[in-house]
Specification:
Structural class: mainly alpha
Helix content: 40-55%
InterPro entries: DUF6587
Radius of gyration: 22 Å
Largest sheet: none
Strand content: under 5%
Length: 92
């Protein structure tokens, strides 16, 4: 009996993980709205299914979509102070 319950919980968690990562964003939003109509907390479901707006969708939260006029065309591009370095360790 307990084994079946544990297997059911594991399968449900795997299905939730699959839905949160591999389904298209539009389908995830529909799932969130469906669950919200059934009484679940919409904000919690949106976080769980990762349907919050991101930088690439034009939400203007990061400012990257804004078109600001450049001061001059010969000005150097802004430099980033922290550069990321990926170190590879080859094991032979």
């Amino acid at each position: 009996m307990w084994q079946q319950v544990i297997v059911g919980v594991i399968v449900a968690a795997a299905l939730l993980r699959f839905c949160a990562h591999y389904l298209p964003a539009a389908l995830r939003r529909q799932i969130v709205y469906f669950l919200a109509r059934r009484g679940f907390d919409q904000n919690r479901m949106a976080r769980l299914f990762r349907t919050q707006s991101s930088c690439g969708d034009g939400c203007s939260s990061c400012g990257s979509c804004d078109s600001t006029p450049a001061a001059s065309s010969d000005a150097p591009p802004p430099s980033t102070s922290a550069k990321r370095v990926i170190k590879l360790h080859v094991q032979r």
